Amino acid sequence: MNQVKSVSVKSLFALLSSRLVLFLIFQAVVALIIESWEASQKYWLLTATLTNLVSIILLISLFKREGSKYINLFHFNRASFRKDLLIFIGLTLIIGPVAFFPNNLLSIWLWGNAEIPFKMMFQPIESWLSYTLLLAFPTTIAFAELATYFGYIMPRLEKQLNITWISVLLPVLFLSIQHCTLPFIPDAKFIIYRGLVFLPFALLLGISMRYRPTLFPYFAILHGIMDFGTAIMFITI
Fold first, then answer.
1. 2 falls within a domain
2. Which residue, 17, 74, 98, 162, is the most exposed by fewest CB within 10 angstroms?
3. In angstroms, what is the C-alpha Rg of the chain?
4. Dihedral angle at the C-alpha atoms of 147, 224, 226, 149, nearest 10 degrees?
């Protein structure tokens, strides 16, 4: 991992909310182009990919300004490789339930039907776009999302605030609530669902990487693989 440098708390809080805001901005741009907010909601995979690209560019710039390299986040630690791999394999045994069970529980609680949020999110888009995003979305998110919250923000928050639990909790919360605008559908139940559905998963990742930062590249790869599965949904509907 890169050496942690000083950066203002104000800048870190701006970065914490950046993806949530960017999702909304890019959806608004899509809505203007197609002249429909409702129709823009189904293009959330596109707005996520565009946001990922901005996040990556921003991270490259921030690391460069600190005199370090963003790409170093994704280097495997050779000295701890075997132990890291064993720990990661062990964690994957609980990642599945933690990542996917909240979806069903929240859907039943809010709507009484697990299929409703799926139908709200996954609607057919142009085939050429769905196939383009099949690679672009999971690739860019693997390099953007965890790098923003846990690779850059979390260690710098801890240095500034000197309070471990807050430095973990804030990135976890913002990683979770960013989904409220991906897509932004002005429906209270949907907003609650999107804000909470990834909270346990984000908490597991945050705690794991706080206490073992060398796990970061493993989780980044896993994240990309998981979202490749999400992108496939647009081809199958």
1. no
2. 162
3. 18
4. 10
Q: Which residues contact 36 (CB under 8 A, 6 or more apart)?
A: none
Q: How far is CA 175 from the centre of its chain?
A: 6
This prediction has a pTM of 0.95
Q: Which pair of tokens denotes residue 167?
A: 């430095």
> What would the two tokens of residue 226 be?
């998981």
Phi, psi of 125 (to 5 degrees): -125, 175
Q: Which domain holds residue 116?
A: 9-236
**pLDDT tens track for 145-187:** 999 999 999 999 999 999 999 999 999 999 999 999 999 999 9
> Could you give the maximum distance between any two Cα atoms of the chain, in Å?
54
Q: Is residue 74 part of a domain?
A: yes
CB 142 within 8 A of CB 224: yes
